[in-house]
Amino acid sequence: MASQAAHAAWLRPCTLQHWTMEEAVQAIGQAAQAAQWRYAITPNAAHFARLQAGDAQLAAIYASADFCFLDSRVIALLARLAGLKPPPVVTGAGLVEALFTRAIKPASTVCVVGGSPEAICRLQARFAIALVRHLCPSMGFWRHEAELSQAASFVADSGADYSFLCVGSPQQEILADRITRTGRARGVGICAGASIDFLTGLQKRAPRPVRRLALEWAWRLAAEPRRMARRYFIESPRGIAFALGPYGGLR
Prior knowledge:
The protein has a six-stranded parallel β-sheet, with helices on both faces. The chain has a two-stranded antiparallel sheet with strand order 1-2. It has 251 residues and is α/β, with parallel strands linked by helices. It has helices at 21-31, 45-52, 56-64, 73-81, 92-103, 117-127, 145-158, 171-182, 195-200, 208-212, 216-223, 225-244, and strands at residues 8-11, 14-17, 37-41, 67-68, 110-113, 132-135, 162-165, 187-191. α1 (21-31) crosses α5, α3 packs across α8 and α7 (145-158) packs across α8. It is built from twelve helices and eight strands. It is globular, with a radius of gyration of 17 Å. Helices cover 50% and strands 13% of the residues. The protein starts with 7 loop residues before the first strand and ends in a 7-residue tail after the last helix.
């Protein structure tokens, strides 16, 4: 595999890996066997909007991520139209599906924070995973020191090869950072959003032709207009402008 330094794009404060999905799965699969903890993030336009707002703590968490993949076909498309060379799009949902189908084995140890018990049951049934350690924290857990520490300790003490943090952004990135600071976690964490729900069929993902046309956002907006309207009409345009403008500096 080519080195990260040779195949990366910089979008302040992120270093976006210029890897294919296959290369991403290979790298994360190797990290899952290591004694130290690493974490992966997949920022999209809404993530970049938060970074544009100037949260120094959140910027540091993104800058510290061991794996960072562009999860926006819209940004990639507009970047190409502007004459830029964006990295390949590696979506969070696609990465999680690829990990379960290509890297994770029945004997792998898996931890999931977030999601429902039904999702965990479906996950175990589909992939024949013997044991999945599962924690479903309360809403807003990340705003309370004791609950955030409890969730971080749960992951660290699980010793899992793969830990999927499925509590939304920026909660999952903040949790990934807190797990790092326990100093006793291992394996790899993936900030996964709703990916487990997509993988287990609890939420329906946009068909592949819709995704290839960079219209998955429209599919999700039609499915959940109240929840998604602010993201796609207010947050995402700000994030796109940041990513393609001089302050984000995608190059």
